[in-house]
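Retro notes, structure queue

What went well: the backlog is down to a handful. What didn't: a couple of records were mislabeled last round, so from now on we paste the full input next to the output in the thread. Example, using Endonuclease IV from Pyrobaculum oguniense:
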Amino acid sequence: MAKVYLGPAGIPQFVVKAKSTLEAVKVVRELGLNAMEVEFVQGVRMSRDLAKQVGKAAQEYEVKLSVHAPYFINLCSDEVDKVEKSRQRLVDSLDRAYYMGAWVVVVHAAYYGKLGPKKCYEKVKEELEKAYRESGVSGVYIGVEVTARTNQFGSVEEAFSLAKELPFVTPVIDWGHLYARNNGSINYGEVLDLWAKEFGGAHMHTHFTSIRYRNGKFVDEHEPIERNMPPFEPLARELKNRDITITLICESPLLEKDALVMKEVLEKVGVRLA
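Corresponding output:
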């Protein structure tokens, strides 16, 4: 049976309102959840000292932490200054993740732009190597996220391939993004089987939310879990019979409220949190 870590992408706001990231760690545990993603999506504004305090709380309350790097990252921009600033945002995210004991920093790495997929892949690889070297950290993965848009770097194949080439990279499966990228279809078992084949028992980090269907296509706009696009229960059932360690970060607009819904579904099919 899967070993599951489950929690919100950010500070709880709906079931219990936490006032800070530090307080949020305690709230997450009190809610019966065991993971949280610290959101740096608008910028890395946390000091090293606060990162250490958050890490200490996470150890005390046994909450597994991850970090999401800023959205303003494009390692394949045709503007050198934007690439350098993007890399620095990733370096800063890795630094704070290290001090808080977070195990992975999730990143939307790039848009293909003028380079196209093949050259963008090589550029992303080069920039990730630079960022990891410049950060000076160890024990923290860069999580290359599977993205929703076909003009973005981040197909399953690209993320898995990079992780095979770079030992400090792990793929991050965003199930909603993959559903959108596949135009409204998803095969959870197929992805989990591929993971097992390529990475064995390595810890798998994933995001989950429903997404919106608008103007004839699925778009990367988060919706509550109840919208069932994609449905969560089939994933829960796939996890029941698999020997895998997996984090499920709820990116629904309802954050911890929907994380608790996900927990209920997991328990209904016979899966309990780690």
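Agreed that this is the format going forward. Reviewer comment attached to the example: The beta strands are 3-8, 35-39, 64-68, 104-107, 141-145, 169-174, 204-208, 210-214, 217-223, 245-250.
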